[in-house]
Amino acid sequence: MKLLPFLLLFAYASTAQDVRRIGAADLKTLLHHPDTALVINLWATWCAPCLKEMPWFEKQAKALTNKPVKFIFLSLDMDDAYPQKIRRFITQQKITSTVLWLDEPNANKYASLLDPRWEGSIPATIFINSKRNYRQMVEGQISEAELKKRVSVILDEGN
Q: What is the pLDDT of residues 94-151, one digit of tens each?
């Protein structure tokens, strides 16, 4: 009987999504990924509009696994949420895309890296295609149709 809790813990650990901590310098590197288009969604566990749009991002990521695009969820949660609360949240939401936590309490250090016009509201999404020198930020919740349209643009489909 004492083996069961251990096995359950092991099963959870082997299926739980990893949440990597990054700083502003790592973010700068991430934003200049040369080979893959990026869709970076800024969110937090307490953000209701973030929760509503997350399944649309997951659906697109799964539909486009053979395309040169990477979907990343960048958590802006406070440090008390890392990693347990964020990990629990993404497990409950069945998030399989990459999840990163931005470990930078000074918004001035990262806001200008993301978009100099960004006012700090979430959700927000950045669409990047470095090969085409394309970068666009959408502040606020995005619809599923708008997400598909913008991903099509960064993949240069239909243009």
A: 999 999 999 998 888 899 899 999 989 999 999 999 999 999 999 999 999 999 999 9
Query: What is the C-alpha to C-alpha distance for residues 87 and 135, in angstroms, rounded to an integer?
Result: 29
Sheet architecture: strand order including 124-129: 19-22, 98-102, 69-75, 37-43, 124-129, 134-139
CA angle 44, 150, 55 (to 5 degrees): 40
Q: Is 31:72 a contact under the CB 8 Å cutoff?
A: no
Do residues 124 and 137 make contact, with C-beta atoms less than 8 angstroms apart?
A: yes
DSSP per-residue string spanning 59-78: HHHHHTTTSSEEEEEEE---
